Amino acid sequence: MLKVGESIPDIETEDESGNSFRSTDLLGKKYVIYFYPKDNTPGCAAEARSIRDSYHVFEDAGIPIFGVSGGSVKSHRKFKEKYALNFPLLMDEDYSIAKLFRAYHPTKVLGRELLGVKRITYLVDEEGRVEAIFGGPEGKEKVNTKQHADQIVKHWGLKL
What is the CATH number of the domain that holds 32? Predict the structure, then answer.
């Protein structure tokens, strides 16, 4: 996983609607990029709803948020529609972005080791560097899926 102070990798992809995304286009503004394992798990849904419900706070502060996970355009669109998400979900079907962010690791599920996306959130500063991390071994605290937006709001001192 990346560490605080490291530069974010340059990435290019699209969101679930086909809009282009380039990390270099975000230089000069803070943003959030969060990785989630699967869009059909209760934790992923809770995390997405938390961000959705507080998204206006980030929008008012000029801080965009991007969710990233594996899966197809169809699965991303379905997830976004099911939970009425108001922020983009970036495509990473081959896990190349998760690998660049070191968010793709072996994990144990029911005693079996599988490869998958770890729940990690990177808060990025205006210079494109990691300002803070939630989740993973470097995280300031574990991602609280039901209150994840509150964790981010608190870190940046934003007003609800």
Answer: 3.40.30.10
Which residue in the list 1, 2, 44, 89 is annotated as catalytic?
A: 44
The answer to whether residue 4 sits within a structural domain is: no
Q: What is the mean pLDDT of each run of 10 residues along the chain (160 residues)?
A: 94 96 97 87 90 96 96 93 96 95 80 84 97 88 93 92
Q: Which domain holds residue 32?
A: 12-156
Residue 5 lies in a domain: no
Name the nearest CA neighbour of 89 among 18, 150, 11: 18
- CA 150/CA 155 separation, integer angstroms: 9
Beta strand pairing call for 12-14 and 20-22: antiparallel
Q: Structure pTM?
A: 0.92
The span from the CA of 142 to the CA of 139, in Å, is 7
Q: Is 102 a catalytic residue?
A: no
Q: Are 121 and 32 in contact (CB under 8 A)?
A: yes
Question: Is 55 among the domain residues?
Answer: yes
